[in-house]
Amino acid sequence: MSALPADINAMLMTLMAGLSSVDNTTRAAAEKSLTSEWTKKARVEMLLIFLAEQAAQGETEAARAFAAVLFRRIAIKSPEETTSVTDRNLGYTSDAVKAQLRATLLAGFSAPQTNGIRHKLADAISELAKEDLPASESWPELLPALFAATQGADASFRESAFRILAAAPELIDSSFVELVLPVFTAGFDDANDDVRIAACTAFVAFFQNLPKKAWPALSPLLPNLLNSLPKFLQSGEENALASVLESLIELVELAPKMFQPLFSSIIEFCGMVSKNKELDAAARMAALELLTTFSETSPKMCQKEPSYTASMVVQCLSLMTEVCIDDDEAADWAAADDADDDDEPEYDAARQALDRVALRLGGACLAGPLFQYLPQMLQSAEWRERQAALMALSAAAEGCCDVLITEIPKILDMILPSLNDAHPRVQYACCNALGQISTDFSDVIQKTAGDRIIPALVSKLTGASIPRVQAHAAAALVNFSENASKDVLEPYLDDLLTNLLQLLLSPHKYVQEQVLTTIAIIADAAEKKFVKYYDTLMPLLFNVLKTDTDKEHSLLKAKCIECSTLIATAVGKEKFAPHCAELIQIFAHIQEQTVDEDDAVKPYLEQGWGRVCRIIGADFLPYLPGVLPPLFIAAKATQDISLLEEDEAEELGQNEAWDVIQLSGKHIAVHTAVLDDKASAMDLLRTYAEVLKGDFYPYVQEIATEIVMPAFDFYLHDGVRHSAAMCIPALLRCAIAATGAKTSPEVLALWALAVDKLFDALANEPVTELIISYYTAIVVSVDTLGPNCLSSTQLDAFVKAVEVNMTDIHQRISARDAGDDEYTENVDDEEEEYTDEEILDELNRAIGSVFKACKGAFVPGFQKLVPIVAAYINDSNAAIKLAGICIISDLLENTGTDSYHFKDLFLNAVGEGLASSDAAIRQSCAFSVGAAAQHGGEQYAQFVLAALEPLFAIITGQGARSDENVNATDNAVSAVAKIARTYGASIPNLDAVLAQWVKALPVLHDTEAAQFAYVFLSELITSGHACVADVAQTVDVVIQALVHAAIAGKTAEAVVGATKQLLGTVPQAEAMAMLGRYPVEAQTVIQKWFA
């Protein structure tokens, strides 16, 4: 009996019949009715009650299944009355309706049902249970019913109960831990495989939801959980084994050290599974992934377990031999156009696993076990082992760089013979290894082994190699050339270009595409040395660009665009000038023909236009009206978000153009490809603004208001927000150049828009790496606009954002310093683009820029930062303390006597910091003392005079001029000069101090410190002070500063003028001898200044 009125029930029965109709017209009308009539606020409760009733007690199994699925979809759908994708219809239903739904669904779940229907009811119950937590209060009948179901005789009941617990782990709070332990124990030992899988999945979800203090009670269950694994293996349930291993991976990510007592057994079992070629690929790769995850979450535990690295190396090498199964000649592989077409999941998984393990454990741990096998595998009669050895070296090279970079000659001795292996796939693997080590050992390998690597790779570009080897050798040359100087490449350019040009005639499109990329990168690296090849190459590229091609060849044309513009960039505007107009005409024609949004030419053409603009500068202006419209369309793209059904989510998740995320039980698809293009378009607009300056101003208002400012709200794409921040300084400079004033109404209006967005983003950005982008934009903008560019309101907003960021960073670093606990290791996240220390560097730069621009006006804002700054300068972590001292340096340098109000905050910390074991802290404290002496006035006299002794201790300490300490030493020397200049009359032994100071020169590395030190030296010379009586010594410290470019411009002129005066006090022959004693390379500088 329905709880709904009969007429409503009848209408909804008709609606459901229509929704499930096979007739398209009928079904479309029903779907329209569902959307326009029944999902509205006034009727959605009735719809949910009806669907719950039909799901629980519908007349047919098909009706119950359809109703259960539709119930869940409508329940989690966002009401039309809200704009939030996280809101759900269930959240807007009354308490009475929720109670009705709970009773109906639970009754249906407990009634006799088929397994499929009970699963769907379980899913519906899970969503309903998530509302109004804790469920023990809102739905007290649920947990007892589920616990009873896990003990029932029907396996379907047991599995579905665990299914609900897995989907809604919040149902069981920590107070139920003791009650739930026997439930999970029974689930792990269940005779039914599906129940064991569901129990394992539920346990992981439950564990993830509990606070760490509750974990000890659960750890005794691990042996039972792991004991279920061999049962799946023995019963041949490979899919079940894979599912449980995947659940365990989530647990290892959370609490890896909890597995330590069982670690060796896990290694042994997973090794057995991954090496068993009779098993399904999913189970083997899940076993490998589980072990790999241990290396990323608990590297110390892996390093301490002797069997771990040995087992991982053997597993990976074994799996990497599983290529070209039943195809010894690798004919299918050789015929493939693209490496992405190779369907070798085990091989790919092993390569990635070895790479990840190497990155976490390092060469000291992994290189030994790996090289125990590589030499003998390279000599194997089986080609698969030879190629596996080379690909393993490629995979491990980056992580093992700390050990292998000193062994480059031996590595090349070992692998170069494989370039001439009888099997093409081994040749390919050798090209891959050479390319990878050219990247991973970059700079060193280019300087020391170019004469071995370049000729070797060039030899594989000839017709003697199969096309895939030719293309891969060309790709490896890209790796080498990207990090090579023009001088390294020059001797080989003839051979390189001769062979690459020959390959442009290849009948294989993918070879031609790769060759164009290689030529482009070589041109980019060779710069002006590429000029001699320009006249040969450019006409060839023009011919391809002028040819109308089908979509299949569009990437080839795209590569030609890239190659032609990189070559033009390399040779420069003058050489490119005769071809410039023609290339622009060709690009314009291509742009007219490029109508498909997904055409490969489109992004390459946009970047090509940008390079042409950089080359010809203001001459590009006439072409902007044709270039900008498609760029504006891309830059104005909106966030394309779609709500998906589960099957749609799975399908779209395989599409690289989309990201699928889960939010509030919903699958949400984000069209990331469109947003990638948006970010690229914004970057190009920034390029045009930077190059064209004031001439680009007519477009600034539209870009700022319609593209850049809205882009800060693109919360689903980090790149868009980064590009928005980076655009702001460029747009400001355009406005300044066009209006002729930093304070013009147009500039101030643009800045008012931008600064509000930047400060709001700083305070609320969830992605820590992006904070550095915002601070960079603030630094450049404030430095560009200059004095008093921030109002008191804006300064308040800046202070609030800085306080939020400093607090968050302090908490993260403190948590990291707290070290490991019994469950987890403190592991640096290698994937993070920036560290907290780097973010602090940029934060310090921003505070410095604001202090410089606003001076005393920033003091009230700084007052609000005092508590967090105090926490920083008194912290034991060196990076945190340094950041705090740097803020004090900016305070002292820019607010002068006003800074003394905060003396109690920093005087002790700065004084003590002069004796710090950390060189960066000593440097910053020395600078702070100098700033107090130079800008702080008489009130700092006692403090700075007391600092003389520790400053000289820095200057004369052991290793004062080492790379680590030299900047601290330079700043200490400069600080002594500032003290002597300001408070000389208060220094009892001033002459002795100055004599000691002169002996501390030269200052060569910190140019800011050098500038003041040498100006002070010139004053001492001019005044004829006795401390500069040793003419040869004084002249020498000046010559060293000039040769090292530590001083320049007007400072150098003043110092040289004083030094000439000093040289005039000695006979000319003696003066000439002093200047003539320096080596040849220094004489050019001496001639410039003392001729």
Task: State the main characteristics.
three-stranded antiparallel β-sheet, 57 helices, 1% strand, mainly alpha, 1091 residues, Leucine-rich Repeat Variant, 70% helix
Could you characterize the architecture of this molecule?
The N and C termini lie far apart (about 110 Å). Helix 32 packs antiparallel against helix 33 and helix 42 runs parallel beside helix 44. Among the domains are: about 120 residues, no CATH class; about 130 residues; about 160 residues, Alpha Horseshoe (Leucine-rich Repeat Variant), CATH 1.25.10.10; about 80 residues, no CATH class. Strands 1-3-2 form a three-stranded antiparallel sheet. The radius of gyration is 35 Å and the shape is globular. The chain is mostly helical and about 1100 residues long.
What is the total tally of β strands? 3
Strand arrangement within the widest β-sheet reads: 1-3-2
Helix content: over 70%
The span between the termini is 109 Å
CATH topology of the domain at 836-1000: Leucine-rich Repeat Variant
Say what oligomer this is: single chain
Spans where pLDDT lies below 50 across 5 or more residues:
none
Q: What's the Cα radius of gyration?
A: 35 Å
Proper CATH architecture of the domain at 836-1000? Alpha Horseshoe
- The share of residues in extended strands comes to under 5%
Structural class: mainly alpha
Q: Profile the largest sheet.
A: 3 strands, antiparallel
CATH class of the domain at 836-1000: Mainly Alpha
Average of pLDDT: 90
Number of DSSP helical runs: 57
